[in-house]
Amino acid sequence: MKKAVFALAAAAIALAACNNAPKENDARQDAPRPNAQLKIAYVEVDSVMNRYTFAKEMQEALQTKAQNVQNTLASKQQSIEAASTKLQQDYQANALTQEQAQQRQDAIQRQYNDWQSLSQRLSNELQAETDKFNAALSDSIQHFLAAYNKDKKYSIILTKVGDNILFADKKLDITDEVIAGLNKAYKPAKKTEVKKEEGKK
Predict the structure, then answer these.
(1) What is the pLDDT of the chain when averaged over all its residues?
(2) Do 160 and 45 touch, CB atoms closer than 8 A?
């Protein structure tokens, strides 16, 4: 999941850079001459994910939810397995009639079907929250870079994920500036909600 988020962030930064590119008419007027140099910068995406408060909070929330889902499903699965084991033991000990054994087998099958339905529902809910986070992350990065690049006027802002850029002058690294700007602009929704709830009491 974390790799997917990294990829999303990279795409978001790249898209924002594209959105800030000069329009076709402007490009003809401002097109760099053959000897002119493009103004280029790059951003370390993994650093953004590790140090951008919004990204960290959402990743932690998603990881917690994923762990809760896993624990819930594992607990119910263990109960089904225990019931199945007990049924087998009782049947082998001739403690059940054929009809009783079938009734318990049917009950276990219903539990298993319910477990499958729950697993699908919880997985869908987790995926929906992950998609919502990815969309919000993309939106926040795009909006920030759009404003940021009005003054900086970079021709290209590249994303560095792992070794996708083999070499780049460290002077082109704007990661710290971008992270600082993102964190400054970030307004946690939770704090606002808490204040509203306190006002109601």
Answers:
(1) 83
(2) yes
Element (H, E) at 43: strand 40-44
Interaxial angle between packed helices 175-185 and 53-92, expressed in degrees from 0 to 180 and rounded to the nearest 10: 80
Which residue, 68, 71, 69, is CA-closest to 79?
Answer: 71
What is the DSSP-derived secondary structure letter of residue 97?
-
- Give the 3-state secondary structure of residue 48: helix
| pLDDT confidence band for 189 (50 / 70 / 90) | confident
Neighbours of 103 (CB within 10 A): 12
How many residues can be counted in the chain? 201
> Residue 172 has what DSSP assignment?
G
Q: Tens of pLDDT along 131-140? A: 999 999 989 9
Q: How many helices (H) and strands (E) would you count in the chain?
A: 7, 2
Instruction: Tell me the pTM.
Output: 0.71
Percentage, residues of the chain above pLDDT 70: 76
CB 48 within 8 A of CB 142: no
